[in-house]
Amino acid sequence: MVKSVTSKGNQSTRDLILHELKASAQCNIEALAEAADISPVTVRHHLNALQAEGLIKVESVRRKVGRPYYVYSLSEKGNELFPQKYFSLTNRLLEELKDRLPPETVNEIFISLVERMMEEREGEFEGLPFEERLNYVINLLGKEGFLARWEKMGDGRYQIIEYSCPYISMGQQHTEVCTLDKQLMITVLGTAVEQHSCMLHGDDCCQFTLPLRPADIQVNS
């Protein structure tokens, strides 16, 4: 039985390779070695094992000059390792809610879901420094099935980038589910979050910017 991919932050080398392939779509051996912080020889051993499991594909790329090189990507089976937490029952329940309730009430329900989720984690993040809260958000998103990372931009602001969304198929029918991850960020980080791209709109990733610089951040415990 093939194991699912673990959340970022507590990963095996195998998971690091799979995450990098998910985030980058295609990678050569050198890029995977750098991402996993191991030698190219060790990467080849892992790739051979993943290919034997049917989790990755390999493609030969020809150059104008010199020998061809190989790039690796996730197979359909490999993509299925990343959690897909939606079911037909959820779709029916959402349709029923939207038929019976006004849009404002449906949105309030989704916000309330996040608030309840965070109540269960009370005391885990409130006293953390801001960048540790960002790490907490990324880990929590990973547990919910997202593949995400944060980075500090050149102007000192922060951004969160999601490369994989477990609700993307559901979101195509019910855009309200897109409020879940953004509301989670707002709740943990205690600041406004601006979204600039969305996979539902055909973008490669969902990108969120925090309109704050380090000097502006005041985290209340």
Specify Rg, calculated over alpha carbons: 20 Å
Order of secondary-structure elements: HHHEEHHHHEEHHEE
Estimate the mean pLDDT confidence: 85
Fill in the CATH topology of the largest domain.
Answer: Muramoyl-pentapeptide Carboxypeptidase, domain 2
The total tally of domains equals: 2
- What would the principal axes of the Cα set say about the shape? globular
List the quaternary state of the chains.
single chain
Keywords:
Muramoyl-pentapeptide Carboxypeptidase, domain 2; 6 strands; four-stranded antiparallel β-sheet; Arc Repressor Mutant, subunit A; alpha+beta; two-stranded antiparallel ribbon; 221 residues; single chain; 2 domains
Can you characterise this structure?
The chain has nine helices and six strands, in the order αααββααααββααββ. With 221 residues, it is α+β, with helices and mostly antiparallel strands. It folds into two domains: 67 residues, Orthogonal Bundle (Arc Repressor Mutant, subunit A), CATH 1.10.10; 129 residues, Muramoyl-pentapeptide Carboxypeptidase, domain 2, CATH 3.30.1380. The model has no long low-confidence stretch (mean pLDDT 85). Helices cover 43% and strands 15% of the residues. Strands 3-4-6-5 form a four-stranded antiparallel beta sheet. Strands 1-2 form a two-stranded antiparallel sheet. Helix 1 crosses helix 2, helix 6 packs across helix 9 and helix 7 runs antiparallel to helix 9. Strand 1 and strand 2 form a beta hairpin.
Question: Short description, anyone?
Answer:
This protein is of the alpha+beta class and 221 residues long. Helices cover 43% and strands 15% of the residues.
